[in-house]
Amino acid sequence: MTPPLAVYVHIPFCTVKCGYCDFNAYSGMDNLKEAYGAALLAEVHADTPLLTGRTITSIGFGGGTPGEVPASHIRAVISAIRDNGSLAPHAEVTLEANPGTLDGPAFEALRAAGVTRLSLGAQSFHADELRFLDRIHSPEATAAAVQTARTVGFESVGLDLIYGLPGQPLEAWTASLNAAIRLSPDHISIYALTVEEGTPLARRVRKGEIVPLDPDAVADLYEAATGLLGEAGYLQYELSNWARLGHHSRHNLVYWTDGDYLAIGAGAHGYLDGERYENAAHPRDYIAAVERGAPAPRPALASAYRPDPVTAMADWFSLRLRLVEGFEPPEFADRFGVPLEDVAGPCLDECAAAGVLELGPRVRLTRAGRLLHGEVSARFLAHLQNARAHTR
Ligand code: SF4
């Protein structure tokens, strides 16, 4: 049986480029939106051979800010995917939007277009923190957006929050969390602020204008969130994600469980039959590439590679460990044809002895280990690389 397929659609436009953001996102490119919408449709049509015969279980509109383009563009893309593939009857269709940018009719148009799930970039409920992050909305706008989304009838409404801002006191973070909980969203994602190379934030840090929060303090904020969200009835299912029962992101689960996903849009990443690939990143290059390359599949392809076995195993392990439930060791053996114990037994035992990994019918990070996911993943990769070097 052909495995199901998820489709990721990248919308690279933002009103303002936030100082901490290193996503493939651009401000001041409104003049490209029409041509971009047409290119998305041309790419979906060109990818018909990749969609045919697959059941599409989810579509994720990410960015950038997908809420920045007219709902008619979103509707056209969903219709094109439905016309060229087989969209499952209860497919999840998620769209990321920023509070304060969409009014009631815009929400209604998105709902009518087939979007089932809204993910709102709340980030903080403090005006000064929002200003620091270059966000253009107010805490009140987030509350209004949740209310409107509910009125319009979205099946699932989620909020994203950022923690670990320079100097952020625990009380400020828990106040934001509590404000989010009071709005009763179905899903809450929390992300630590990271200083990404090449961003204005990184330049300010280098100049000494900003001092990043100490990692121990960041860990305390994460711990506080784990406690508060759990007490409020949210189930943590992934390192950064909590949901009410039945409201986890089915689309993102595809990424974490080695599923196939098709990439549509500028700089979008895809994963098909064991090959990872990426589209041309700049919206202008993407539009030109689609115009040149369609109707052949993947007309905007910029690069593709098939991970070697060690990389594939390490990617699989690292992604699976992001899930709180972890995985059953036979799943690894089924995927790679070799028992997990044989490729990484000593490394896993060390992590278990250090109290960060639980071994047994399921392999998963302990609660303390959730803060050390990067280290555990790096250790696993290093172990596999060493073993390979010694067998050469
Ligand atoms: S709105 Fe989101 S994608 Fe756009 S610049 Fe800000 S952080 Fe980046």
Rg over CA atoms, rounded to whole Å, is 21 Å
Under CATH, the topology of the largest domain can be stated as: TIM Barrel
**Which percent band covers the strand fraction?**
15-25%
The helical percent reads 40-55%
N-end to C-end Cα span = 37 Å
Low-confidence stretches: none
Strand line-up in the sheet with most strands? 7-8-6-5-4-3-2-1-9
Number of individual domains: 2
Mean pLDDT comes to 96
SSE order in H/E notation? EHHEHEHEHHEHEHHEEHEEEHEHHHEEH
Tell me the structural class.
Answer: alpha/beta
Name given to the CATH architecture of the largest domain: Alpha-Beta Barrel
For the record, the CATH class of the largest domain is: Alpha Beta
User: What small molecules does this complex bind?
Assistant: iron/sulfur cluster
CATH superfamily name of the largest domain?
Aldolase class I
Question: Can you walk me through this structure?
Answer:
It is built from 15 helices and 14 strands. By secondary structure, the protein is α/β, with parallel strands linked by helices. It folds into two domains: 250 residues, Aldolase class I (TIM Barrel, Alpha-Beta Barrel); 83 residues, Arc Repressor Mutant, subunit A (Orthogonal Bundle). Strands 7-8-6-5-4-3-2-1-9 form a nine-stranded mixed β-sheet, sandwiched between helices. A hairpin with a 2-residue loop joins strand 7 and strand 8. The longest helix has 19 residues. 41% of the residues are buried. The structure holds iron/sulfur cluster (SF4). The site of iron/sulfur cluster (SF4) has 11 residues, from loops.
